[in-house]
Amino acid sequence: MGDEIRRNMALFPIGIVMKLTDLTARQIRYYEQHGLVMPARTSGNQRLFSFNDVERLLEIKSLIEKGVNIAGIKQVMNPVSKESEEATVITPQTESKRRELTDLQLHRLLKQQLLERRPGRTSLIQGQLSRFYNNKP
DNA sequence: ATTCTAACA
DNA sequence: TGTTAGTA
């Protein structure tokens, strides 16, 4: 499976990724600080993103738009480590199953958060999401 | 011209 | 998150 090396190949600088994802440099760097993506670095310390990195950022963007915050995203997205990505063989089957599971986890997470909203634990949802279940805009 | 880190009238 | 300063 030499296609993985292509997907994990460090190719584009943050400027390109901004156009590809419609995310600000601030957001992209912020998500990296929280371990949501691990772009490679050039010898000059500049970030170089792979296709996989861009796809992850798009997924993150999608979740953010659904009202999920960083904590929530960390729980529903599979962790990224250079090693696991290169070692994990991703067949079309495992890929689709990964997304299925992610959606189920997301739905479960959202319902869980909206129901057992206990004092003390910080919400994984960023306010607006309640509109998908409660009042209608 | 771009990107990076750090910091906040 | 935006934005800006001072670099590399």
UniProtKB/TrEMBL annotation:
Organism superkingdom: Bacteria
The keyword Repressor belongs to this UniProt entry's keyword annotation: yes
Stored InterPro entries: DNA-bd_dom_put_sf, MerR-type_HTH_dom, MerR_fam
MF (Gene Ontology): DNA binding; DNA-binding transcription factor activity
Nuclease as UniProt keyword: no
Residues of the HTH merR-type domain: 11-79
Alphabetical keyword list: DNA-binding, Repressor, Transcription, Transcription regulation
Listed PANTHER family: HTH-TYPE TRANSCRIPTIONAL REGULATOR TNRA (PTHR30204:SF65), REDOX-CYCLING DRUG-SENSING TRANSCRIPTIONAL ACTIVATOR SOXR (PTHR30204)
Protein known as: Putative transcriptional regulator
Species annotation: Thermobacillus composti (strain DSM 18247 / JCM 13945 / KWC4)
